[in-house]
Amino acid sequence: MGLLRDEFLKSIWHAFTALDVDQSGKVSKSQLKVRDNFDILEFNNVCWTLCFKKNINMSHLLISNDDAFKVWCIFNFLSEDRYPLVIITEEIEYFLRMLMEAMGGIWNQERFDDYKLMLNRKQQCLSAWELIELVGMGHFSKGMNRQTLSMGISEVFQELILDVLRQGYMMKKGHKRKNWTERWFVLGPNSMSYYVSEDLTDKKGDILLDRNCCVESLPDKEGKKCLFIVKCSDKSFEISASDKKRKQEWIQAIQTCIQLLRLGLPSPHREARLRRRELRQKQQAEQGELEERMRLLQIANENKHRQLESMTKKLEEAVATATLEEQRRKQTQTDLQDRYRTDLEREKMVRQQMEEQVAQKSSELEQYLQRVRELEDMYHRLEDALEDERQARQDEETMRKLQTRLLEEESAKRAELEQIHLQQQRAISQTQAEKQELESDRLAKEMALQAAMLQLESLERERHGALEQYEEVRMKLEQAANKTKSWKDKVAKHEGLVRLIQPGDKGPQRMTNWGPAAFTDTELDLRKKSWQERKNHNQSAQ
Questions:
Q1: Could you tell me which residues come within 8 angstroms of residue 181 by beta carbon, excluding any fewer than 6 positions away?
Q2: Where exactly are the structural domains of the chain?
Q3: Rounded CA gap, 84 and 82, in Å?
Q4: Taking the mean position of all CA atoms in its chain, how far away is CA 305?
Q5: What whole-number distance in Å separates Cα of residue 182 and Cα of residue 170?
Q6: Contact between residue 79 and residue 89 where contact means Cβ atoms under 8 Å apart
């Protein structure tokens, strides 16, 4: 009932639109006529009569008014359930394929694709009058005469609108006289009507079909072949087809109608139309979902683009900040280099002063040794031995002081180098980015560190040389001590003379190679004692 209601509404819409001359959406009551009893074809014919003259000119078309009416009904059947009514390209192709098949022609897909492409550029659909003009102009039925086109339209009309599933001549056995008579049978969804001829003017009866009916094949009898029987609840009908192929086609078509009645389904064409619409709706829903996804993806892409722009701005700000930090770091590095250069110059001056003092001390030592040699000449072997002992002790004391100074200087240098190294490590550990930028600075400091290490190695060699000299002096002292054991009495006699040649303090302040000493005589004695203990411990360990 819902499908019939939609078809009624479509016909009414055409009539209402034709009567609504001023397009106000209202029609006067005098223009509308209501009848109690009418069938759908008569109703459609009334609506057609009201609207076709105002919308189409039939003079230049290849089809008659009746054929145009049938195309109009087919349009109402295949059009979409929205207003204003239009038929889409898929339904146009479905209708034209059926029309070409009914006319016995060959479907030209390339021609329709060209027409579809042209139609998609404009509106992608047709109105009822445009469809009638398309069929009437014979665009897709070239080479067909008007009678063939009219017969094709009628066949499609009967199949789609009148729900004629099959029609044709067959022999029917009578119920009273039992004679066989040729009849024109028309199979519908719920009935099988038979007429005297195919013009459908003289109807002889109906075979009402329901879910309890059945159709069976019969063996040949009474000189009739290709027999089958349609069994209904009240009576049965024996029918003879012209050949076995048509017999099988009729049996299959009747069985299809009975099966649809049992399942409560509409006619095959109406069901196919519903399936096509459901498929289009599903495709439209999928298309809408796809468009929504594309929209969401576009929004996400725009958000990502904005985030990327924000990150780019932050990166530019970070680069600017890093540039400022780099300028500050370079300025700090320049200040450190200037300070380090000043310290190196100061250290060079101090070193020159120490070298001058060492030269002076060496000159003094040479003079002192010269006096000692003169005394050795005076006191023969004993005096030589005593002088050697005293000189050895003096050299030992000097070497101890020198070694102590070297150790102190080495410790100070090591502390300074460790401080530079710690500063370098702190500068390197600030950030990974600054590590790369400070690599050149680190290399420069490493060169300075290597120079300082070379300096330290030089001091270390000097210390080792002093130790070797100290060992030599110690050996001489031991030899001198052994020599002086037998001369104790002579030493006592010449004690006054020995005192005269003992070195004395020149002043309260001791001097080193780098300037005045930083410790007193008491501290020097403590250092000598500690050094002697370490030396004895190392010798015992060896």
A1: 171, 172, 174
A2: 1-162, 163-265
A3: 6
A4: 13
A5: 6
A6: no
Amino acid of residue 55: N
Backbone angles phi, psi at 38, to 5 degrees: -160, 155
Helix then strand then coil, in percent of the chain rounded to 5, is 70, 10, 20
**Helix (H), strand (E) at residue 208:** strand 203-208
pLDDT band, very low/low/confident/very high, at 511 (cuts 50, 70, 90): low
Mean pLDDT of the region 320-335: 90
| Pairwise CA distance, residues 126 & 115, whole Å | 12
- Condensed to tens digits (0 to 9), the pLDDT of residues 22-66 reads 555 555 544 445 454 456 778 878 888 888 788 887 777 888 888
Structure tokens at 214: 């059945």
Burial 295-328 (b: 16+ CB within 10 A, else e): eeeeeeeeeeeeeeeeeeeeeeeeeeeeeeeeee
Distance CA 106, CA 331 (A): 91
- Residue 344, number of CB atoms within 10 A of its CB: 12
The CATH number that domain 163-265 falls under is 2.30.29.30
How many CA atoms lie less than 13 Å away from 323 in the CB half-sphere?
Answer: 6
Strand positions, DSSP E, 17-136 = 87-88, 125-126
Instruction: Give the list of residues 6+ apart from residue 185 with CB closer than 8 angstroms, or none.
Output: 166, 167, 168, 169, 170, 172, 192, 193, 194, 239, 250
CA distance 500 to 494: 10
- Write out pLDDT tens, residues 345-354: 988 999 899 9
Q: Are 103 and 144 in contact (CB under 8 A)?
A: yes
| Residue whose C-alpha is closest to residue 456's, from 430, 495, 418, 487 | 418
pLDDT range class, residue 154, cuts 50, 70, 90: confident
- Diameter of the chain measured on Cα atoms: 188
Cβ-in-10-Å burial (0-12, 13-18, 19+) of 74 comes to buried
**The amino acid at 311:** M
Alpha carbons 518 and 347: distance in angstroms, whole number: 17
Distance CA 490, CA 492 (A): 5
What's the confidence (pLDDT) of residue 497? 46
- Across the range 186-212, mean pLDDT stands at 86
Cis peptide before 503 (omega within 30 of 0): no
Distances (CA, A) of 158 to 29, 60, 163, 495: 34, 25, 6, 160
Helix 65-78, helix 128-136: angle, nearest 10: 130
User: At a CB cut-off of 8 Å and minimum separation 6, what does 449 contact?
Assistant: 417, 420, 421
Quote the CA–CA distance of 472 and 455 in Å, as a whole number. Answer: 25
Rg (CA), the chain: 64
- Dump pLDDT digits (tens) for 100-129: 888 888 888 888 888 888 877 767 788 888
pLDDT digits (tens, 9 = 90+) for 134-152: 888 877 777 778 888 888 8
What angle in degrees, to the nearest 10, is found between the helix axes of 89-103 and 268-428?
Answer: 140
